Amino acid sequence: MNELHDKTNRSLDGRTVLVTGANGGLGEQFVRQALERGARKVYAAARKPKGREDRRVEPLALDVTDSGAVARAVASAPDVDLLINNAAIAPGGDSISGPEDELRRIFETNFFGTLRVANAFIPVLGANGGGTMLNILSAAAWISVPTGYAASKAAMWSATNALRLQLLGQGTQVIGLLVGMVDTPTSARWEVPKVSAASVVAQAYDGVADGAIEILADEQTRGLKSQLSAKAEQFYPWLHEQLKFFVA
Ligand SMILES: NC(=O)c1ccc[n+]([C@@H]2O[C@H](COP(=O)([O-])OP(=O)(O)OC[C@H]3O[C@@H](n4cnc5c(N)ncnc54)[C@H](OP(=O)(O)O)[C@@H]3O)[C@@H](O)[C@H]2O)c1
């Protein structure tokens, strides 16, 4: 295990963090709690970065679909040792049977964009002691919500586990975070129980400090994982019952 993870106080003392999608619901929390936990510096990356009061925060322009912008971000942030791939889109009207252009747009951000940033920062993490890559996935990676979003998260779940293997040699901690509904602008259109962004981020940073490789950040997702080994003939009818709300 990389010595960066050998912490018992779960602080981020001395860490340099980069958060993509830093203006969003979870993104804001990732920035705020990194500061509270003592991070040395936080790059708050966003398509339109905003000014920040804390001098430890460095706003960074980063559209994850723009390879030039990703290369510039790597050049501007050579000291990152905790990369948080948080940016994603979840457009209204998204359907797995919808227009191919729209499905490609979702994959361009959620899968290729995330993977582009991940791959671009591999040498940076390696040069900074191995470090940590935290990929924000979704319980939708495991449940058959009929959307391009869910498919993109399933693809990124697979890629996250592959990156972990790929990066064994440089000692990078690669974490997948899965969670159901979180109270952020993305989920505003669904009136269902949601956990707070603050609780998800707190569990994420605890996991970083503890050397976790998978974080299941709500009861729903922890319960879901325990069901995955059930027979398909039992599991999918059970799942469809849970998901009626989304396809009604
Ligand atoms: N909310 C939930 O229920 C939930 C559940 C499971 C997983 N998640 C995941 O949690 C993460 C954060 O989502 P959230 O709920 O906080 O949503 P959010 O408030 O919509 O934040 C998403 C952020 O991603 C940014 N973004 C979108 N496209 C981008 C691009 N091409 N380049 C750079 N940034 C881009 C957005 O930036 P702009 O401000 O520029 O649009 C926004 O700030 C996502 O990965 C999401 O899939 C959310």
From TrEMBL:
The keyword Oxidoreductase applies. This is Short-subunit dehydrogenase. Pfam families: adh_short. InterPro entries: NAD(P)-bd_dom_sf (IPR036291), SDR_fam (IPR002347). It comes from Roseiarcus fermentans. The keyword Ubl conjugation does not apply. GO terms for molecular function: oxidoreductase activity. Belongs to the short-chain dehydrogenases/reductases (SDR) family. Keywords: Oxidoreductase.
